[in-house]
Amino acid sequence: MLENVVNVSDRSVEEIRVGGSELDYFDCQEAWYPVYYLDDLEQSQPTPFTLLGRDIVIWWDKQAKLWRAFDDQCPHRLAPLSEGRINQDGLLECPYHGWAFSGSGSCDRIPQQVVNGIAETSQRACVASLPTAERQGLLFVYPGNPENATKTQIPIVAPLEESPTEWVCLNTFRDLPYDALTLLENVLDSSHLPFTHHRSVGNRANAAPVELEVISSNKQGFTGIWEEGPRRGKLGRQETKFIAPGLMWHDLTSKQFGRTLTVVYATPIRKGECRLFARFPFKFPNKLPGLLMKLTPRWYNHIGQNGILEDDQIFLHYQERYLEAKGGSTNFTKAFYLPTKADSFVFELRQWVNQYQVNPFPGETLPPKLTKEQLLDRYHSHTKKCASCRGALSRIQQLKFWCAVIGAIACITLPSLTFYLDNILFAVTPLIFVAAWLGLNNLEQKFYVGRATPPRNLPEKTQN
Q: What DSSP line would sit under 118-174, residue for residue?
């Protein structure tokens, strides 16, 4: 079988354009998509993921020392392989009957067959394998024709290839309850920051006319510019690039902060759901800010970044349903009223969708809308899939347990100890551990659910 692992340094001379060869049609299958940060994958167990509605299993092939992606179905009785294990021989083993598969997708063994049986050699015993590649700390998967994978460019952030050691990068991800195109439309729109993200990363006082200009556009994406830039021009010009079908970044260079990028990958999971990969690379003019960022735990940054995502998570979930009811992207010029140049990139994205008939899920409609409580879930959309947050949550729960135990012991033994020792420290010891438990409990909740009221809607402080 074909070894579906791409050597990114040895590309075919004959390159195929992302999205297929047709000039007026973008095939969403014929593109590379990031599915996981490498730091969040565990080599000891298989990991499930859904890409473009296709359930796959990601696992570490220790024999080849490569990440593999298979269809998440055993050919025997269609049990999900992601519920299985990587056995002692380094093979992916089905949980149902123990069929085991090598990195190529070939069946290596069928425990139920007689000695000298050859059922595993049948093509029907094989699992479909998808091409994979590692770039810039991400695992990419190619869901289209495997023969096109090596000829199709992997979407990377080109500026990070320039002097890579000089960049300090914050990374996060989250499974979002709306389409990848809705996510891209949102992050391409810089004009919403002062309002939606007021008191998190924005300020209403910075709202001003946003004069965006599209510089070039084709099937592979578009580039644009905001000459004045954010904060009424205080940070300088901002350049924007969209690489079809799911990568964009804003590029800003200022005297205060050096060069900063806001990078977003939007990977379609299923209709109405996508995985966001957000990257914030900084190239500071001096080393101190970068050093402080490196010292901050990854999980702590994720708590704050989850809060920022929740600033617009609820209304974007509803917004795309209203758009669908009004005819969807094909009718966006009538559904949306876009009178200013602030919406130029939104217009260009929707125009690109229509011009190249971009539809990751043809014939499908959005699922029923979720409740606000479901939309604010953090545990299932991020925490349990993030190695750093999952580990931090486990440690916090252990600390909570020991605070409760020590606090209880202190309460029980305090009366007898104070009879012999007249010391205020012994008297306040239970209170210290109660306060620690309450603080840890509050921190623990941030791994499970977001805040019900976004900062922008909190009462403004009144000045006397």
A: -GGGSGGG---EE-EEEETTEEEE--S-HHHHTTB-----GGGGSSGGG-EEEEEEE
